[in-house]
Amino acid sequence: MSFDPASLKYDDRGLIPAIAQDAQTGEVLMMAWMNAQAVTRTLETGKVTYWSRSRQAFWIKGETSGHVQELVDFRVDCDRDCLLVRINQTGPACHTNRRSCFYTAVRDGEEVELMTPMSD
Amino acid sequence: MSFDPASLKYDDRGLIPAIAQDAQTGEVLMMAWMNAQAVTRTLETGKVTYWSRSRQAFWIKGETSGHVQELVDFRVDCDRDCLLVRINQTGPACHTNRRSCFYTAVRDGEEVELMTPMSD
Predict the structure, then answer these.
(1) Which range marks the domain in which residue A73 is found?
(2) pLDDT by residue (tens digit) across B6-28?
(3) Which of A44, A92, A101, B112 is the most exposed place for a label (fewest CB within 10 A)?
(4) Which of A67, A66, A84 has its CA nearest to residue A75?
(5) A57 burial class (0-12, 13-18, 19+ CB within 10 angstroms)?
(6) What average pLDDT does this structure show over A54-77?
(7) pTM for the complete prediction?
């Protein structure tokens, strides 16, 4: 079946969550949002492109930082309301310079930092 | 630092997305939503508990199906507006009886089904 970005279920802002996963290691790196056109651009260019809610603009991941996400595989969930992009990540995915945004664990009621920022 | 569920950023419905990842294989299994009390219950019981938007009720994953999610590690992202739960999944995570909800890939413009339902 041919894929139509309009067939996805977007929220009332026209957005769908997209989980970015390292295609090599399986590590979950970040979650951000796409609109229908960001989905189209991601598939057409192979460069993962989100919609920035704060800037209200397309966000080609890594365009300014160089920390690009090359699309390896694009997946849709059963309800068509969440995406999983399997990627090759250059450098850190997180704006704090850590490899993943999920660097804080909650263990025995305490927050534990699992990763330090990467050096350039 | 002591963890306070109220310190997370919830959306205007009081919800935060939670990504469930197989702690053994790294496979991303599903994404669902929690409210503050679901976060508390998940941490207290070790059984991953979501908030069902359709039923407007707590949803202890697997309570009726037996396909429970045992919490292994609970992670918070840099913006505190997304969660990652690393889990031991019994049986399929998806209501279609597939291991993961992300069983559809988009490749060369076509939808490709990657997994078949598990047998009981």
Answers:
(1) 14-90
(2) 999 999 999 999 999 999 999 99
(3) A44
(4) A84
(5) exposed
(6) 96
(7) 0.97
At B53-87, the pLDDT tens digits run 999 999 999 999 999 999 999 999 999 999 999 99
Does A105 map to a domain? Answer: no
Which CATH number belongs to the domain containing residue A76 in this structure? 3.10.20.810
Name the domain count of chain B.
1
Any domain includes A97: no
Domain-embedded: residue B107: no
Query: Is the distance from CB of B111 to CB of B102 less than 8 angstroms?
Result: no
B60: in domain: yes
Q: Is A97 exposed, middle or buried (0-12, 13-18, 19+ CB in 10 A)?
A: middle
Indicate the pairing of strand A110-113 with strand A104-107: antiparallel
C-alpha dihedral (A25, A88, A76, A46), degrees to nearest 10? -170
Mutant choice from A34, A44, A54, A82 vs B, greatest count of B C-beta within 10 A = A82
- The fraction of chain A above a pLDDT of 90, given in percent, is 97
Chain B hits for A25, Cβ within 8 Å: 26
- Is residue A120 predicted with pLDDT exceeding 90? no
Cα–Cα distance, A8 to B49 (Å, whole number): 26
By CA distance, what is A96's nearest residue in B?
A: B78
ipTM confidence score: 0.96
Q: Would you state the pLDDT for residue B48?
A: 98
